[in-house]
Amino acid sequence: MGSLTGRVAVVTGASRGIGKGIALALGAEGATVYVTGRTVAPDSHPLPGTVGETAAEVGRRGGQGIAVQVDHAEDDQVASLFARVGREQGRVDILVNNAFALPEDLTEPRPFWEKPLSNWEMVDVGVRSNFVAAWHAAKIMTPRKSGLIVAISGYVGVTYTYGVVFGTCKSAADRMARDMAIELQPFGVASLSLWQGLTFTERARRNLESNPAMKKLTVTNPAIGSTPEHPGRVIAALATDPEIMKRSGGTFITAELAQDYGVTDIDGKVVPSLRAERGSPIWHPIPETRHGR
Length: 293
Hints:
Layout: E1 8-11, H1 17-28, E2 32-37, H2 51-61, E3 64-69, H3 75-89, E4 94-97, H4 121-144, E5 147-154, H5 164-184, E6 189-196, H6 202-210, H7 229-239, E7 251-253, H8 254-261, H9 275-278
Parallel strand pairs: 1-2, 1-4, 2-3, 4-5, 5-6, 6-7
Helix pairs in contact: 1-2, 1-7, 3-4, 4-5, 7-8
């Protein structure tokens, strides 16, 4: 039995990328994982991966993977997802808000006024979607006095990375996680955000191959990267920490939490923190701050 046997997780945006890696890591610890995303048919997206393929791999890792097609820009689809989880499981122990509408031109070095207004979709699926999923999850978690809501963010929360809208979204995700923690605290539900550095997703690998100059930049230097499963291993450790409420409300660098919990990447690598190079989180856990409300 794994450390998460009997636990139920929802991982949004898990057809591929970081979401997929997190789903697999949670599945490896025995969790039942609802894998959400828009891609259900192979070869229907420029990058490989479907919710069904991720769910199947969760099963092979020792968990139970359940694929659900969800467009997180559509509130009714999110409502249906959580209604189904409630019916089938009666609980949600972990919500990982990972879904994000990444535009194809994200890493292109052009100013915001030379990129399309449609890039604002990152706010719809990246900020608003976090709130909607957490709204539904909280209704299931709070009566049980237990649960963990994690927002996937990054150093971009305090340092310019790629563009205006991207930075706005990640900063908002951090603050949202913190303020949710204040309101969830009386119910024993934890909320926090994790800062990822370079993660070797399908998209990141493609970008590094097509633009070798990116390898020389601090933000995209392969030497500091991690696999998509690394944050999932950290989330599994968080979910089984009996003192998780002491971390609620904080923004954490994933690499630093990994060292706290003795977690390495799948190849045994200790992923470095970029605090010195890229900045420090703003939001501290609620128990550590004097400015609760």
